[in-house]
């Protein structure tokens, strides 16, 4: 099967894996929306939500909670959004849960001066 995420699981292509157990792999998204953007994937090839089983999904949620703690402790994230795409909007056809961190950017006087310069 020509699945890029199965190849990551089988170590045929490299990834920045941050967590692994018998059921799932967690690695950095190669095209992150923010620092620490993670993907959680099941080790068995599951296409999407329709083919996902409750036991694997429950485990993925437990791992998501663990990763949320890790992101809070190590990267000081301020918020986290979970996304799982299906159908037309699913680019990689192996189930994956996105964990997208958010950061509150404190605006300094210097930031405001730079933004003002760009806009005026
Ligand atoms: P989507 O299928 O639209 O939910 O998103 C697929 C995600 O997989 C995108 O955010 C890509 O940046 C990410 N991605 C694709 N290939 C790799 C890869 N080899 N390593 C890490 N992330 C990847
Ligand atoms: Zn796969």
Notes on the structure:
- This protein has 120 residues and is α+β, with helices and mostly antiparallel strands.
- The chain has one domain (4-119): HIT family, subunit A (2-Layer Sandwich), CATH 3.30.428.10.
- It has helices at residues 4-9, 54-75, 109-119; strands at 17-20, 24-28, 38-42, 79-83, 97-102.
- It has a five-stranded antiparallel β-sheet with strand order 1-2-3-5-4, covered by helices on one side.
- It is elongated, with a radius of gyration of 17 Å.
- Adenosine monophosphate is lined by residues 4, 15, 29-31, 85, 89-92.
Ions, cofactors and other ligands present here are: adenosine monophosphate, zinc ion
How many domains would you count in the coordinates? 1
The CATH homologous superfamily: HIT-like
Main beta-sheet annotation: 5 strands, antiparallel
Q: What oligomeric arrangement do these chains adopt?
A: single chain
In angstroms, what is the radius of gyration? 17 Å
Percent of residues in helices: 25-40%
How large is the count of helical segments? 3
Shape: elongated
Identify the strand order in the major beta sheet.
1-2-3-5-4
In the CATH hierarchy, what is the class? Alpha Beta
Spell out the helices and strands N to C.
HEEEHEEH
By CATH, the architecture is named 2-Layer Sandwich
Mean pLDDT: 96
Instruction: List low-confidence stretches.
Output: none
The SS-based structural class is alpha+beta
What is the CATH third-level topology name? HIT family, subunit A
């Amino acid at each position: 099967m020509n699945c890029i995420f199965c190849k990551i699981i089988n170590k045929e292509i490299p990834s920045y894996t941050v967590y692994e157990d018998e059921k799932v792999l967690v690695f950095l998204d190669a095209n992150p929306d923010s620092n620490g953007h993670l993907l959680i994937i099941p080790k068995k090839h599951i296409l999407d939500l329709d083919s996902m089983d409750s036991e694997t999904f429950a485990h993925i949620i437990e791992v998501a909670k663990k990763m949320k703690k890790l992101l809070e402790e190590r990267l000081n994230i301020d918020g986290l959004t979970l996304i799982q795409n299906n159908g037309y909007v699913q680019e990689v056809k192996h189930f994956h849960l996105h964990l997208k961190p958010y950061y509150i950017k404190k605006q300094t006087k210097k930031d405001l001066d730079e933004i003002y310069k760009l806009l005026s």
